[in-house]
User: Fold this.
Amino acid sequence: MAVRQDRPTKRRPPLDGEALERLALRYAERYATTRARLAAYLTRKLRERGWAGAGEPQVEPLVGRMAGLGYVDDRAFANAKGAALGRRGYGERRVDAALRAAGVGDEDSFEARETARAEAWSAALRFAEKRRIGPFADEFADREGREKALARMLRAGHPLDLARKLVAARPGAVPEADGD
Assistant:
């Protein structure tokens, strides 16, 4: 799609306190977000459009107010994100990495990480089934195929011992969760 060069770009006016609050409300309304993501969004908008309000822009107090009103809830975000990743077959390390990237602190992500740890075996089985690894493969993979499958399991955040157990399993023979 070609950009028209004959029309100048309309420049957005600088933000003031009211406009910044409207942006925060609109963002929290549209997206499941965290305090860190909301603060980063508002900071980026201030950098793009500038500040026309009195004094310095108050991003952190605004984010705190949004959290106090329940529009932004890091713990609920962490639990929802952790559950979604678990349903897709990702392990605890991948859940933890996603929550850290979203700016969720250890205290708010504790429950989501514990849930991922408790459901590690079922998440690994889901991942192996989706990717046709080990017991869900059509045929037993050669060494190179098993190494690639192991790497996929590890990138998905599964522990090495659990990933090895699933990758080494013969097609159709799902290993037990607690024993060899």
User: Anything to note?
Assistant: DSSP finds nine helices and no strands in the chain. The first helix runs from residue 17 to 30. The chain has a mean pLDDT of 93. The CA atoms of residues 60 and 91 lie 33 Å apart.
